[in-house]
Structures are given as C-alpha cells and as structure tokens.
Amino acid sequence: MTSIGSLAARAGHLALDALLPARCLKCGATVRAPGALCGECWAGLAFLTAPYCACCGFPFEFDAGPGALCATCTRARPTFNRARAALKYDDASRGLIIDFKHGDRTDAAPAFIPWMRQAGAELLAEADAIVPVPLHWLRLFARRYNQAAMLAAGLAKAAGRPAIMDGLIRRRRTPSQGRLGPSARRRNVAGAFAVPARRQAAFEGRRVLLVDDVLTTGATAEACAAALLRAGAAGVDVLTLARVVRPQAE
C-alpha cells in the first residue's frame, strides 16, 4: 500500500509540475525545482566570501591577514562581536530581497537558508541561541509575517540550534530606516529594543546569534545587541541574508 501511495503521490506531483512548472524566484523563468533560481539570475548574485573584516564582514579586495579590520571598525568597534552576510545587497539581489520582505514571497525563505548557513558557519557553530530582529506588532499585523523570524527559524532547524523567537521585542514603532543616514538611523532605533522580563534568564552567559534580512549601517543590529548584552548575553553575533557595501573612508 505504501508503494502504491508513493507512486500516486509522485504521479500527482508530476501532473502538477506539468500544469504549473517551477519558476525562478527572481525572474519567473522555468526552472527544474521550486524555490530555485535560473542560471542567469544565479550568476548575477554576488556572494560574500573571505577576505573580509574580521568584525563586521565588510568585503576586502585583498587579503589583509588574520584579524584585519575595516576602516569603520578600526575607528570604533560595534556593539556586536561579528557580522556576516550571504549576499551583497545590489541591483541583482535587491528585487529578490524586497519581494521576500514586502511582496509575500515567503516561498523564497528555504532557498536563502543554505546561503546564510554557509556564510555564517563559524557563528552558528558557536551560537547558544538564535534570535530574530523583531517587528513592532502594528507592522507585523500589517505585513502578516516577520521575514527575520522566518530566516531565524529556518537556520535554527538546519543547524540544530535553539531559537528564541520572542527573545526581543520592539518597544516602539520606529519610522522606516530606508531614507535615513547612519546617524539618523542610530537615533531612530536608540532604546527601541528590549528583552522581555520572562526571557532574561534565557540569555545569561550565552552567545546569541541575531538574524535579520539586510545589514545596512548596523544601527538596528547594534541596538538589538545592546539589549541582549544588558540581559546578560556573553556576546552577540549577527547573520543577515545580505548587506549593503558602501565605500569606506580611510
């Protein structure tokens, strides 16, 4: 009966694939499997690999040696310990990420998890808990899902690490960071995040991996890291799907 059921299910999938073929997550071209990219879209993505800043993960053109820091981190180390990202946020990745974040393309999340897991392998290996950057409840109600939470849950399952999905709350609804500069972003999120009292003990002495979709200036990540450190976390690392890469002043 099991084999008959399996054959029937396979036949059903084949019939469905014939009627509704899998489409590229980015351009909509036909691909071999759901949740995949076509060859052209895949080739256009800029995956971030070493060499990069030992702290924030800013990519270097040349290997500057173990522990090398970028100009920004040399001037002032961020609140978090390390940050890593799978992709460069650019023209090739922007539409893919915006569709995931604002366009209900939650079907893309499973494709992103392996990319992030590879980019943050060292961070995941040392993490005692994984926590997503939270949305304010009003924004969550309007959007219906938190993209950072989807990524955090997928990473926790793939890496076998515990996730504390409600480990952080956003105490006030901050304006969108999209058009703000670095200083304005920091002011915008200052004091916006907190660890609920019921979760304080869960972070004491533990290394936390904070997960978000995009790292821009790091203001949100730093505000979240500060809240986790106040709750007693031993350290906070950051893993994002993508990061903005802007020229840094020497």
Low-confidence stretches: 11-17
Total separate domains: 2
The CATH class of the largest domain turns out to be Alpha Beta
Number of beta-strand segments: 6
Please write the string of helix (H) and strand (E) elements.
HHHEHHHEHHEHEHEHE
What is the fold's blueprint, element by element?
Elements: H1 2-19, H2 39-44, H3 71-75, E1 82-88, H4 91-102, H5 109-119, H6 121-126, E2 129-132, H7 137-143, H8 147-159, E3 169-170, H9 182-189, E4 193-194, H10 200-203, E5 207-215, H11 219-230, E6 235-243
Parallel strand pairs: 1-6, 2-5, 5-6
Antiparallel strand pairs: 3-4
Walk me through the structure.
There is one protein chain. The chain is α/β, with parallel strands linked by helices and 250 residues long. 41% of the residues lie in helices and 13% in strands. It is built from eleven helices and six strands. The strands form two sheets. Strands 1-6-5-2 form a four-stranded parallel beta sheet. A two-stranded antiparallel sheet has the order 3-4. The longest helix is centred in the N-terminal third of the chain and has 18 residues, at 2-19. The termini are far apart. The model is unreliable at 11-17 (pLDDT under 50).
Keywords:
single chain; 250 residues; alpha/beta; Rossmann fold; four-stranded parallel β-sheet; two-stranded antiparallel ribbon; 13% strand
In short:
This protein has helices at residues 2-19, 39-44, 71-75, 91-102, 109-119, 121-126, 137-143, 147-159, 182-189, 200-203, 219-230, and strands at 82-88, 129-132, 169-170, 193-194, 207-215, 235-243. With 250 residues, it is α/β, with parallel strands linked by helices.
